[in-house]
Amino acid sequence: MAHETAHIVEMARQLRRDVVTSVHLAGDGHPGPALSIADIVATLYFAVLRIDPQQPDWPERDRLILSKGHACPVVYAALARRGYFPVEVLPSLRCLHSMLQGHPDMHKTPGIDMTSGSLGNGISIGLGMALAGQYKHQEYMVYVITGDGELQEGIVWEAAMAAVRYRVGRLVVFVDHNGFQSAGEVSRVSGLLPIRPKFEAFGWHCQEINGHDVQQILDAVNCAREAADRPSMILAHTVKGKGVPFMENDNSWHKRVPTAQELEAALEALR
Amino acid sequence: MTRIASSREAFTNGLLDLAARDERVVLVAADSVKALRATPFEEQFPQRLFDVGIAEQNAVAVAAGMAACGLIPYVATYAGFITMRACEQMRTFVAYPRLNVKMVGLNGGIYCGEREGVTHQFFEDLGIVRSIPGISIVVPADASQVRHATRAIADIEGPVYLRIGSGREPVVFDDSVPFEFGRTRVLFEKGHDMAIFTNGFVVSRALAAAERLHETGIHITVVEVPTLKPLDRDAIVEVLERTRGAVTVEDHNVIGGLGSAIAETISEHVPVPLVRVGLQDVFPESGEAEALLDCYGMDVPSIVGAVHRAIARKECLRLGDAEADSSVQRSPGMQVRT
């Protein structure tokens, strides 16, 4: 187990290096939100998801929906490192005719299970996928990664109600609770917080973890899978910009391009 | 006496036929089972009905997720709640990823919203959907066509919007008449003085106007356009080249729907006069269905008048052309007969 977590931790560090590098080379993108979920993404892609890079459309595969689509550089990095496409493609992020759109496109990028980027929609779509699996007696899991700020969207709670009504045990939602959204601190922008009691009130299975602790992420996924009669929410406490000291908790890195010098400093911190 | 049949029951019957032969077909409702008259579906296929409650955005997004996993979801509720409240889900998560979701809108037009008033009268749906890339749009003329269309759109891979009504629609077609996706259909052809292009539950009114005109010596062609997108452009252009003018008759705002689609075709391919009959960019009100159409300009005399106006404009242009050809100045007092 220790060996496995060490590998995931190293992969998370690699994904972070890929994020800052690709955003720098592309000259555009959202590094802060991507760094925030690097440990969750690395754990899912390198230890959890039942997927086959040789068959991206395998019907029985587990699904991952990145509801906070703007964090896609880290998922693109994971897909490349997992062998869906060459790592050399990563710097083409957001460029004309690139397979790596500014926000995920399920038809342009192998391994992307659902187009995303307009916030708040991932849980609903994940619910639809989980219901389809339930109806077809397939055993795939559906994982959704959502930001905390996007829980302000009304559709989130529409989905929260319906998911409980249909007892979708194979739907697992990670909430990346880094406390920031585009305009500032979530606690200042709206009355969303606290998050956990709201999902609990809707009847979800809820857990709270350190979203940068790989062992806690793995344990939470296993626990969520055991809750087979209801959907699961894992509230992952994270740090926006995690891993690059000068980006951590500095919301100006929500969408900002590191200069050559900043990239060098970031890569040094991520060695 | 006009025969009436229910487009809502027809939809459910069509869906039952489909579900019996294709396990991938499911129904996603937003507390709309009763409105859809879909209780028989719930009884026969309880495991294939997913009612997410009064939550249309969720309904459309859930359907997108299902389609991404190989099902063929029909998501059905009031037209405006799909096309307006859930517009972005329809655009970004159904149309953009080209997912095989069939969206079915109840109460299309003011005829079907009738006594409910503006909140339940949907006359912008077609314009909204038409402006989104990749969604086919089907506007059947009566209940039997709705039943056929419900089945036919399952064979089209990709997003479709199907407009249905309130449950009391005039019968236009015999049940044996099939629905043909993507094709226009000539319903009346007594001459080429003018063409009426029409669709939806006002087709019967367009036909009544054509009969009345025929009795007064004006001989026109009536073309049904049950697939609004993709438009059967070549067939429309062919008719326009013969009639050299057009009137559109639709239960929709004249902006965005059939009138706009024909105007676009005319301006790019056959520049001829056009008069659009439909809701004239105003909010209507509650009222009895037939009286509403009469009050808001979709009555038979208004359609007849529109044909007269279109013919007069055509005549004007013809005289203008002749004038230009001969370089002869028209006398100032000359009037065109209307």
Q: Shape of chain A from CA axes?
A: globular
Low-confidence stretches of chain B: 328-338
Count up the domains of chain B: 2
The CATH class label of chain A is Alpha Beta
**Helix amount of chain B, in percent?**
40-55%
- The succession of helices and strands of chain A, N to C, reads HHHEHHEHEEEHHEHEH
- Strand elements of chain A, count: 7
What structural category do the secondary elements of chain B indicate?
Answer: alpha/beta
Would you write up a description of this structure?
The complex is a heterodimer of chains A (271) and B (338). By secondary structure, chain A is of the alpha/beta class. Helices cover 42% and strands 12% of the residues of chain A. Chain A is built from ten helices and seven strands. Chain B folds into two domains: 4-170, Rossmann fold (3-Layer(aba) Sandwich); 185-322, Rossmann fold. In chain B, 41% of the residues lie in helices and 19% in strands. Chain B contains 13 helices and 14 strands. In chain B, helix 8 links the parallel strand 6 (136-138) and strand 7. In chain B, helix 9 (203-215) crosses helix 13 and helix 10 packs across helix 11. Chain B is globular, with a radius of gyration of 21 Å. Chain B starts with a strand and ends in a 12-residue tail after the last helix.
